[in-house]
Design a protein that fits this description.
single chain; mainly alpha; 4 helices; 52% helix
Length: 84
């Protein structure tokens, strides 16, 4: 499971990588991946797009941190087998 955002161009690149990786896992029959995308809704929030991006960064990301929330067992096993 992974959580990503679309509030910066760097975050969008990370999201694209995560989506590609999840398709590869499913193609290799390693399991199902879940990606949560934190996004804005200027019209629903009645804010400008710039205000919504700032609000996400200040209020949502501290509560809902971005990144991998659960590492697949395959990666954990590989990491444990590697010598330090």
């Amino acid at each position: 499971m992974s959580r990503h955002s679309i509030f910066t161009s760097n975050a969008i690149r990370k999201l694209k990588k995560a989506i590609t990786k999840s398709f590869e896992y499913q193609k290799e029959k390693k399991g199902t991946c879940f990606i949560e995308v934190v996004s804005n809704c200027p019209s629903g929030w009645k804010m400008t797009p710039v205000e919504t991006m700032k609000w996400i960064e200040e209020h949502m990301l501290p509560i809902y941190p971005l990144g991998d929330l659960k590492v697949p067992k395959v990666e954990l096993k590989a990491a444990m087998d590697e010598p330090n």
